[in-house]
Specification:
heterodimer, A: 110 residues, mainly beta, five-stranded antiparallel sheet, 11 strands, B: 115 residues, four-stranded antiparallel sheet, globular
Chain lengths: 110, 115
């Protein structure tokens, strides 16, 4: 049972344009959804989160939107930069339980 | 403050051998969790330790085990290695109590290759 789904394994975007990464979930019990970014040969690093009581959270170029009725969230990166090229993981947290999606590889083309 | 430290960073083993990986969490963090990353599978949860006790366990065979010491450092062991165990093993630490954003702090991982 894949509780957190990221149906796009990869995404390519032109530099300066918007990147939209999507995540769907099945279990409605959660405290937060978190996005992590991972570069090759490094561990994932926390990017941005959204709590269960909000529908939007913004931090600089990064905005996460949560649609609880559709059990869907998305990460928007505007404008996209080449340094954003990485694998992005969506993660659900509930108490001390964490479930990660399979990740989406974002390539930002100069 | 120092981040999460994992050793060794890279190792090569042969089928049937066993391996031990080590993780030192961020100072003050009492929860250590382990994940396996393979291409296309994302991060698969292995287990989580808090105050020397296994608090959560993922869906992995008994060949995968772990422990946590009184200083919160953790080790994981894989016995009777199989080719499919080749992966990046990531350790993450957190305070382990309550919930701010639930953020995990990851180490750089131990890359295991089984030949």
């Amino acid at each position: 049972d894949q509780q957190v789904k990221q149906n796009s394994p990869s995404l390519s975007v032109q530099e300066g344009r918007i990147s939209i990464l999507n995540c769907d979930y099945t279990n409605s019990m959660f405290d937060y959804f978190l996005w992590y970014k991972k570069y090759p040969a490094e561990g994932p690093t926390f990017l941005i989160s959204i709590s269960s009581i909000k529908d939007k959270n913004e931090d600089g170029r990064f905005t996460v939107f949560l649609n609880k009725s559709a059990k869907h969230l998305s990460l928007h990166i505007v404008p996209s930069q080449p340094g954003d090229s990485a694998v992005y993981f969506c993660s659900r947290s509930y108490g001390q339980n964490f479930v990660f999606g399979p990740g989406t590889r974002l390539s930002v083309l100069p | 403050k120092a981040g999460v430290t994992q050793t060794p960073r890279y190792l090569i083993k042969t089928r049937g051998q066993q391996v031990t990986l080590s993780c030192s969490p961020i100072s003050g963090h009492r929860s250590v969790s382990w994940y396996q990353q393979t291409p296309g599978q994302g991060l698969q949860f292995l287990f989580e330790y808090f105050s020397e006790t296994q608090r959560n366990k993922g869906n992995f065979p008994g060949r995968f085990s772990g422990r946590q010491f009184s200083n919160s450092r953790s080790e994981m062991n894989v016995s009777t290695l199989e080719l499919g165990d080749s992966a990046l093993y990531l350790c993450a630490s957190s305070l382990g109590t309550g919930s701010n954003t639930g953020e995990l702090f990851f180490g750089e991982g131990s890359r295991l290759t089984v030949l």
